[in-house]
Amino acid sequence: MKMSSEIDLGQSVRELRVRHNLSIRELAKNSGISVNTLSLIENGKTSPTVSTLQQLAVALGVHVAAFFEAGTSKARVIHIKSGTRKKASLGYYTIENLGAGFINSSIQPFMVTLEPNAGSGAQPIVHTGYEFVLCLKGRVAYHIEDCTYLLEQGESLLFESHLPHHWQNTGTTPSHFLLVLYPTDINDRATDRHFASAHRRRRKR
Question: What's the CATH fold of domain 106-200?
Answer without folding.
Answer: Jelly Rolls (2.60.120)
